[in-house]
């Protein structure tokens, strides 16, 4: 059960992520040896020793913060897909992306992050995005807003500042987009420019801070999107699947996500790609597939 007063939990997660990042991620940035990197499904899908150690160390720390909770990490789920079944259970589940933007990390690009989401009862209750190099955290709690926490020195009290998406206007031609869905070709040229950051975490951070306004993904995994979507929504943004349904972290192989500053802008964009429809998604490991 998630406690009603979550202040200690929020800070406990931030501290746990920071400790792990300082121990095994930051020291390896631009210091990886060739044997520290390997491919998973294809040459562009890489994992490093830092990913593996981050997930291995972070899981027990998170478990200790919430009695009875379970853990799903990206690397653990790759090795054992049945871990997804935990999302269908009654226990709170920590969903971990130990390094989001691993390709950036491998190539020495300073755009990567650690993502943690807390899923319970079929929805994301809390989410954190932590930038290891900056020591900053963007986090949200369902119904309680999105917050930004700066680096915390030993012994200092955390400074949590609430974040709201800044006004963006209503003209698509003035907006910055991050498009990761090949089905949305009809939107090509509709925005001021398109950016590719190589990290879902940084995509969501850009939306919340107003450096980008529109985000689209085709394939969705909970470790990439559960936390970010909650953070975006609690900051005042509007996001839905192209089917019109809300993202559900317990469903597998969800496709067609669109994020916008407001519902009106979301509907305008969706109207331009209305021919792209995706069926209702099935539960994880549903036997009908």
Topology:
Elements lengths: L6 H19 L11 E3 L6 E3 H17 L4 E4 H6 L13 E8 L1 H5 L6 E8 L2 E9 L4 E6 L3 E5 L10 E4 L12 E5 L12 E2 L5 H10 L4 E6 L2 H13 L3 E4 L13 E6 L2 H10 L17
Parallel strand pairs: 3-4, 10-11, 10-12
Antiparallel strand pairs: 1-2, 4-5, 5-6, 6-7, 7-8, 8-9, 12-14, 13-14
Helix pairs in contact: 1-2, 5-6
CATH structural class of the largest domain: Alpha Beta
Number of domains: 2
The end-to-end span amounts to: 32 Å
- Overall body shape: globular
Can you describe this structure?
It is built from 7 helices and 14 strands. It is α+β, with helices and mostly antiparallel strands. The chain folds into 2 domains: 7-163, Fructose-1,6-Bisphosphatase, subunit A, domain 1 (Fructose-1,6-Bisphosphatase, Chain A, domain 1, 2-Layer Sandwich), CATH 3.30.540.10; 172-272, D-Maltodextrin-Binding Protein, domain 2, CATH 3.40.190.80. It has a 7-stranded mixed sheet, with helices on both faces. The chain has a 5-stranded mixed sheet with strand order 11-10-12-14-13, with helices on both faces. Strands 1-2 form a two-stranded antiparallel ribbon. The two termini are 32 Å apart. The model is unreliable at 282-289 (pLDDT under 50).
Provide the descriptors you would attach to this structure in a database record.
14 strands; 5-stranded mixed sheet; globular; 289 residues; 7-stranded mixed sheet; alpha+beta; 2 domains
């Amino acid at each position: 059960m998630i406690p009603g007063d979550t202040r200690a939990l929020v800070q406990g997660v931030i501290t746990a992520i920071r400790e792990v990042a300082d121990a095994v991620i930051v020291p390896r940035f631009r210091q990886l040896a060739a044997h520290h990197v390997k491919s998973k499904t294809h040459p562009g899908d890489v994992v490093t020793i830092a990913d593996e150690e981050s997930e291995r160390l972070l899981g027990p720390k998170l478990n200790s913060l919430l009695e009875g909770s379970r853990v799903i990490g990206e690397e653990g789920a790759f090795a054992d897909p049945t871990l997804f079944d935990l999302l269908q259970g009654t226990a709170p589940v920590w969903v971990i992306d130990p390094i989001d933007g691993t390709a950036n990390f491998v190539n020495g690009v300073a755009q990567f992050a650690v993502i943690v989401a807390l899923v319970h009862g079929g929805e994301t209750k809390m989410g954190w995005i932590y930038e290891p190099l900056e020591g900053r955290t963007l986090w949200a709690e369902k119904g309680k807003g999105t917050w930004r926490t700066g680096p915390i020195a030993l012994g200092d009290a955390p400074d949590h500042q609430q974040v709201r998406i800044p006004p963006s206007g209503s003209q698509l031609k003035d907006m910055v987009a991050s498009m990761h869905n090949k089905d949305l070709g009809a939107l090509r040229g509709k925005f001021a420019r398109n950016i590719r950051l190589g990290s879902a975490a940084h995509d969501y951070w850009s939306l919340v801070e107003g450096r980008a306004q529109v985000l689209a993904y085709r394939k969705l995994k909970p470790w990439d999107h559960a936390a970010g979507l909650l953070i975006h929504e609690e900051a005042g943004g509007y996001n839905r699947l192209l089917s019109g349904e809300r993202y559900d972290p317990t469903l597998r192989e969800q496709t067609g996500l669109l994020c916008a500053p407001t519902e009106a802008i979301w509907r305008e964009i969706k109207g331009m790609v209305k021919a792209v429809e995706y069926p209702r998604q099935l539960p994880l490991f549903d036997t009908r597939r």
